[in-house]
Request: fold
Amino acid sequence: MVIKVFLASSSGSTAIKKKQQDVVGFLEALKVDYTPLDIACNEENRMWMRQNVPEEKKPTNGIPLPPQIFNEESYCGDYETFFDAKEDNSVYAFLGLPPPPGSKQARAQEEEQEEADEDREEEELQSEEEEELRQLEEEEGLEETQEEEAE
Reply:
């Protein structure tokens, strides 16, 4: 899976530059492999980004601004959604990536999986017990019927 970050290398906006630096710096700190794609000097990148940002995520003028983040062809989000994911400690989920082994997120997922496994085992045991009880009741009912018929 390749994370694609669409950036503008020659943006006149300091706000856009800061947002781009924040995204790239955070991905590098997490050691997430990503590919920076420049929309300022590559028309193909600019057109691809504009066409693949979902309509409901585009600003009112219809032109999405960098940074825009994709996992392969799948849209992850813009800077605001990235920032929210960062604040929620859910960047890996935002990017559609599994958390690295040993990370807090990986441990949390492992714990959730263990709980789900325990719940499933408990339900299976309960089902088995209910089935055994039903069989015992049937056997008792048969014995009572046989005793009544014998009388």
Observations:
- The mean pLDDT is 88.
- Strands lie at 3-7, 34-38, 68-71, 74-78.
- The radius of gyration is 28 Å.
